[in-house]
């Protein structure tokens, strides 16, 4: 029993390491700045419309910078009022928001995951997640890092349209009492540097 558990763990960590290398490679696509529209491989550079669109560099460089993903810290940009996206297309649409944090991963070795409803419902409707991705009852959905790395659950958006999965500690953001392992340097008391802020 003991042996088979450690074998599973070994497999899992090797598999995690492999997936992570892939993620890191994908993360370098945006390094530094934004590709011009004519070179992004999405728009047809010969189309007259390509010249009418605003260049990402011009628009996005004005917003709160991030070190990852598409280089904008979107949650902060919205909170600071740097952007003011329209909430709905139709006047009759009811905009629903919820200010409730959900703590997940209460038993694992990584820090606890804090899922904030507030920041999500600033961008999304309840129906983007409920109930096809997550039950409306804390702890009822079987969520796992394996599924997330396969692009399911949190991974439907994170790594696709929201910050990438390489930012472990933006989700695993709450340390357990007395936790000293599996911490990023700025959370690790052994490496504590005065003035360093959390994730
Ligand atoms: C988008 C949010 C998110 C990101 C980013 C993320 N995780 Fe997770 N992780 C979760 C959730 C949610 C769970 C499952 C919680 C549960 O068991 O209910 C989880 C579970 C885990 C587990 C299994 C439980 C444990 O703590 O041992 C490991 C290991 C893990 N994550 C490692 C990582 C590593 C390493 C990274 C960065 C490469 C990472 N995670 C990035 C959300 C995230
Ligand atoms: C980005 C995804 C997402 C969005 C959007 C979202 N939720 Fe959730 N919600 C979750 C997750 C994840 C859980 C935890 C599920 C679990 O542990 O099984 C949860 C849990 C809940 C719970 C259970 C709380 C408890 O005390 O047990 C309720 C109620 C809930 N959501 C209501 C809403 C409502 C109302 C909205 C819209 C205003 C909403 N959610 C939007 C992801 C989301
Ligand atoms: C339907 C899409 C969607 C799903 C599913 C989703 N997220 Fe997010 N999440 C977003 C978007 C959009 C943002 C804001 C943009 C960004 O920060 O990249 C965000 C932001 C966040 C933030 C940052 C909040 C802040 O204050 O900066 C955390 C933490 C987070 N998500 C955790 C999770 C976890 C954990 C799960 C799974 C339980 C999850 N998300 C599932 C779309 C999603």
TrEMBL record:
Could you name the domain of life of the organism this protein comes from?
Bacteria
Domain Cytochrome c7-like: from-to ranges = 113-173
List the residue ranges of the region (Disordered).
Answer: 180-199
Task: Enumerate the Pfam families for this protein.
Answer: Cytochrome_C7 (PF14522)
What protein am I looking at? Cytochrome c7-like domain-containing protein
């Amino acid at each position: 029993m003991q042996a088979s558990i450690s074998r599973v763990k070994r497999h899992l960590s090797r598999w995690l390491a492999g997936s992570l290398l892939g993620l890191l490679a994908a993360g370098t696509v945006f390094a530094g700045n934004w590709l011009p529209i004519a070179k992004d491989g999405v728009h047809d550079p010969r189309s007259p419309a390509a010249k009418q669109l605003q260049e990402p560099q011009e628009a996005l460089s004005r917003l709160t910078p991030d070190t990852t993903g598409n280089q904008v810290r979107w949650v902060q940009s919205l909170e600071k009022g740097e952007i003011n996206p329209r909430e709905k297309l139709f006047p009759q649409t009811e905009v629903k928001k919820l200010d409730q944090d959900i703590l997940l991963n209460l038993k694992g070795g990584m820090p606890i995951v804090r899922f904030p409803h507030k920041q999500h419902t600033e961008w999304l409707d309840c129906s983007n997640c409920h109930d096809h991705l997550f039950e409306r009852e804390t702890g009822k959905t079987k969520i796992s890092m394996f599924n997330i790395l396969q692009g399911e659950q949190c991974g439907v958006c994170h790594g696709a349209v929201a910050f990438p999965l390489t930012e472990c500690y933006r989700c695993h953001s709450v340390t357990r009492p007395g936790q000293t392992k599996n911490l990023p340097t700025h959370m690790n008391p052994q490496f504590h540097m005065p003035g360093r802020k959390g994730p």
